[in-house]
Specification:
The complex is a heterodimer of chains A (100) and B (169). Chain A has three helices and no strands. Chain A has 100 residues and is mostly helical. Chain B is an all-alpha fold. Classes of the chains: A mainly alpha (100), B mainly alpha (169).
Chain lengths: 100, 169
Amino acid sequence: MLTVNHFIILSAVLFSIGAVGVLVRRNPLVMFMSIELMLNAANLAFVAFSRYLNNLEGQVFVFLILTVAAAEVAVGLAIIVAIFRARARVNVDEVSELRG
Amino acid sequence: MDLIVFFLFAVIAVLAAVGMVALRNPVHSALSLAVVFISLAAMYVLLSAPFIAVAQVMIYAGAILILFVFVIMLLSPGVDQGQGALRGQRGWAALFGAALVIELSVVLGTAALPLSRGEFTPERIAQIGNVQAVGAQLFTTYLLPFEITSMLLLVAIVGVMVMAKRVRV
C-alpha cells in the first residue's frame, strides 16, 4: 500500500543529497544543480501532502515554485557567466572578495 | 502495482541524484539531474497530479536543464579536480547529510498528520479535470501570488539583461 510516508521519505532523501552536494562540490554549476534538487524535493513533499489532504493548494504552490526556480536559475547562471568573464575560472572558493 | 512503480522510480531518482553529486564532469551531472527530474515527473503522475508532471518535464527537464547545459558548454569549465578548500569537508558533509536523512525521515515519517481531508478527492478531480481544478484555484484564490510571479519573471529578465551586458570599464 502506497502511503504519503513513502513520498515524504523519498523527498527527505533527495533533499539531503542536494544539501550534501552543495557542501561537497566547489563547482558553482553543480552547486546550483544541487539547489535545484532540493527545490524538487520540496515540490515532491508539497504534491504528496496535497494528494494526502485532498487539497489542491500544494499543486498551486508547486506551480509558483517552478516559476521562482526558473527565475532563480536565469539570474544565477547570469552571475556565474559574469564571474567567469571576469576571472576565467569557476570555483566558488576563489570568489571571496565580498567576505567581510 | 503502484508500489512497484514507486520503488522503481524512487531507486532511479536516488541513484541519479547521488550520481549528480558524485560525477566529476558537470555535463554528466546535468544529465543525471535530467533523470531525477523525469523520475519525479513519474512520481507526480502516481500522486494524480498530471498537470504538475507535465510542467515538471517542460520547465525543469526542458527549460532549466537546457539553460544549465548551455552555460556548461559556454564556459566549458572542465572536470573538477581536488578536494574542497576545507580540510575533511567531504567527510563532514557526508556525516551531516546522513544525519539530515535520519532526522527528516524520523520526524516526517512519524509525524501525526491531520486527518481533516479537503474536498478534492481523486474522484472529484477526475470529474472536473486536474488542469481545470488547479487553474480555477490559481485564477481565483491565488490570483495575487500568480500576478506577483509574473512581476518576478519580469525582474529576472531585466536583471539577466543587465548582468549579461558587457561592462565598459
